[in-house]
Amino acid sequence: MKNKPVISIIIPCFNAEKYIKKCLDSILQSKYLNHEIILVDDNSNDKTKEILTKYKKSKKIKAFFLNKNSGPAKARNYGARKARGKYLLFLDIDTEIDEHCLKQVVEKFEQNKKLGAVQASLDTAGHFLTFFGFPYEVRSKQRLIFGARSAGMGIRKDLFEKIGGFDEDYFIYGEDTDLSWRVWLAGHEVHYLPEAKVYHFQKSSLNKKTGYRIFYEGAKNNTQNILKNAPATILLWMLPFHILAWLFLSLKLLGQKRGQHAISIWRGLGWNLKNLKKTLVKRKTIAGYTNPNNQCRQIMFGEINLKALFSKGWRWFWHV
Question: Transmembrane ranges (predicted)?
Answer without folding.
Answer: 234-254
